[in-house]
C-alpha cells in the first residue's frame, strides 16, 4: 500500500510491518511479538453469551420450538367445531359478513372435518385421530386455541412468528432469548436451528437472524446431510496446539481490525465464531452422536421408520442439545411450506401428521422420563391456521385470525385448553393471543419480563413485542 508523508511521520515499526505489503509484514511481526512475550492473549472481554440473571424465577431454562411450516389446520387437530358438520356445503353464516380469504376466494362453502375426535387423558382434551401419539401426552399440553397474527401469506406469517414483525430487519425470538439469558454451555451454540425435509423455510436466515442486534446472537443452522455442523472436524494435518496458536494470532489481527469498525458487529461475531468452532471440535461431535442412544430411544423417536426418521432425528438431537445447556432450539417440520393444504387437505395432513406425531410425542415422553420436561418449554405451532371454508373444493386457505398452538413443560399449567375461536373456528374471540403475546409468554416462563428486555437501536429502545404484547400468565403453573 502507499503511505503518504503525513501518515509516515506517525507510523510505528509495528504499524509499518502490519500495513506494508498488504499486511504481509504481519508474519514478521508475529515472530517479533512472540520473542518479546507480547503474543500473550489480552484479557478478553466477557462473552456476550455468558449466562445472565433472570428478572424473576424461571420456570424454563430452554426452549424447543416445533415449527410446522405452512400452517396446520387447527380445525382438524385440536379445535373441534361441530358446526362445520351442520353447515357443510353451505356459505358461512351472514353474521360473519363477506369473508375474503388470503388467496382471494369468497363465498366458498364450509368444508366439514373428516376427523374423528376423542377426549384424552384425565384432562379430557379434544384431539383428533390424526394425532394418536400426541394424544397420549394430552395431560402435558396447554392448548391455546385463540392465537392470531397479521401475516396472511407464508413469508409475512413465518417472519412475524419468528421476529414479531411481518417485515425483515428485526431480531428473532431465539436471538432475544440468547441476548437476555445467554447460554449455559460456551462450547456449543446458544441458539440452534434445524430444518426437516428437502425444502427450505421461506425467508431463510431472516427467520433466525439477529436483526439490528450484534450478529453473535443469530441462530446456528445444522446441516441436513453430512456432519450436523459445517467444518466441525479439524484437518488431519493440523495439530491442536498449532491450530490454537493460529487462532490466537488471527484473533489479535481481527480485534485490531474491528477496533476501528465498532459498528460492524459481523466482525465481533466472526471472532467469537472462530473460538466457538474450535471448542465445538471437541464437544459438538459427542453432543450430536445419536449412536450413544439406546435402541429403545431410537424407536421412541421413530428412527426405525422411514416416515418419522427425519423429524425424529432432529428432535432427539434437540433433546441432547438442551440437555447440554443450549438455550433455544428450533425444529422446522415440512420445511418449504409442506403443511400448506390449499387442496386435498386429507392427503396433505395425513402425510404431515404421520411424519410429525410420533417424534413429537417421543420428545415429550423422553424429556419427562429424564426429568427435563419441567425445565424445557416445548412450543408447537405454525405461522397461522386454516379456514373453515373450502378452497378448491377439498382444501383450506390460510387463516391468520384464529388458530391453535400448544406449550408443554417449562412451568405451564398443563392439561388445559385456553381461549376459544368462534363457532366455525374463523376468528379468535376469547382470551385472544397475538404473536406478541405468545412471545411475551415464552419469555415470562423463562424468567424474563418482556417489558424489561430492551435493546437500544439508533437511540430507540426496542422490545420483542414492539410495545404491544402481554405475558399470558394464566398459562403458567403457580
TrEMBL record:
Pfam family, one: DUF1501
Protein name, per record: Sulfatase
Organism, scientific name: Stieleria neptunia
Amino acid at each position: 500500500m502507499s503511505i503518504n508523508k503525513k501518515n509516515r511521520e506517525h507510523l510505528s515499526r509495528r504499524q509499518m510491518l502490519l500495513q506494508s505489503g498488504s499486511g504481509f509484514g504481519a508474519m514478521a511481526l508475529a515472530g517479533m511479538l512472540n520473542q518479546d512475550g507480547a503474543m500473550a492473549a489480552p484479557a478478553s472481554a466477557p462473552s456476550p453469551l455468558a449466562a445472565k440473571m433472570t428478572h424473576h424465577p424461571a420456570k424454563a431454562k430452554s426452549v424447543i420450538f416445533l415449527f410446522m411450516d405452512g400452517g396446520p389446520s387447527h380445525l382438524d387437530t385440536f379445535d373441534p367445531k361441530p358446526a362445520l358438520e351442520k353447515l357443510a356445503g353451505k356459505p358461512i353464516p351472514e353474521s360473519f359478513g363477506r369473508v375474503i380469504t388470503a388467496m382471494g376466494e369468497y363465498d366458498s362453502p364450509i368444508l366439514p372435518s373428516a376427523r374423528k375426535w376423542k377426549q384424552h387423558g384425565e384432562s379430557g382434551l379434544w384431539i383428533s385421530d390424526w394425532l394418536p401419539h400426541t394424544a397420549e401426552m394430552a395431560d402435558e399440553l396447554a392448548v391455546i386455541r385463540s392465537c392470531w397474527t397479521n401475516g396472511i401469506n407464508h413469508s409475512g406469517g413465518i417472519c412475524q412468528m419468528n421476529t414479531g414483525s411481518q417485515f425483515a430487519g428485526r431480531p428473532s425470538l431465539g436471538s432475544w432469548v440468547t441476548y437476555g439469558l445467554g447460554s449455559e454451555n460456551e462450547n456449543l451454540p446458544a441458539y440452534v436451528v434445524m430444518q426437516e425435509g428437502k425444502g427450505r423455510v421461506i425467508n431463510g436466515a431472516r427467520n433466525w437472524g439477529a436483526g439490528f442486534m450484534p450478529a453473535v446472537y443469530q441462530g446456528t443452522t445444522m446441516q441436513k446431510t453430512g456432519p450436523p455442523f459445517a467444518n466441525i472436524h479439524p484437518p488431519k494435518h493440523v495439530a491442536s496446539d498449532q491450530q490454537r496458536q493460529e487462532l490466537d494470532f488471527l484473533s489479535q489481527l481481527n480485534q485490531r481490525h474491528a477496533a476501528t469498525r465498532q459498528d460492524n458487529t459481523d466482525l465481533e461475531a466472526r471472532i467469537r465464531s472462530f473460538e466457538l468452532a474450535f471448542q465445538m471440535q471437541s464437544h459438538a461431535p459427542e453432543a450430536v452422536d445419536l449412536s450413544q442412544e439406546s435402541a429403545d430411544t431410537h424407536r421412541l423417536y421413530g428412527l426405525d421408520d422411514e416416515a418419522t426418521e427425519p423429524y425424529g432425528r432432529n428432535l432427539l438431537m434437540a433433546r441432547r442439545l438442551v440437555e447440554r445447556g443450549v438455550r433455544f432450539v428450533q425444529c422446522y417440520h415440512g420445511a418449504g411450506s409442506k403443511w400448506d393444504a390449499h387442496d386435498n387437505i386429507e392427503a396433505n395432513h395425513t402425510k404431515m401428521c404421520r411424519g410429525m406425531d410420533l417424534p413429537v410425542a417421543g420428545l415429550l415422553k423422553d424429556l419427562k422420563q429424564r426429568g427435563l420436561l419441567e425445565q424445557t418449554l416445548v412450543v408447537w405451532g405454525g405461522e397461522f391456521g386454516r379456514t373453515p371454508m373450502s378452497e378448491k373444493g377439498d382444501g383450506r386457505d390460510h387463516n391468520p385470525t384464529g388458530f391453535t398452538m400448544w406449550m408443554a413443560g417449562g412451568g405451564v399449567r398443563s392439561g388445559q385448553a385456553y381461549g376459544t375461536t368462534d363457532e366455525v373456528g374463523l376468528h379468535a374471540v376469547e382470551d385472544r393471543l397475538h404473536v406478541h403475546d405468545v412471545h411475551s409468554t415464552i419469555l415470562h416462563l423463562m424468567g424474563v419480563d418482556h417489558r424489561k428486555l430492551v435493546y437500544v437501536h439508533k437511540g430507540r429502545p426496542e422490545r420483542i413485542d414492539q410495545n404491544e404484547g402481554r405475558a399470558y400468565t394464566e398459562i403458567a403453573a403457580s
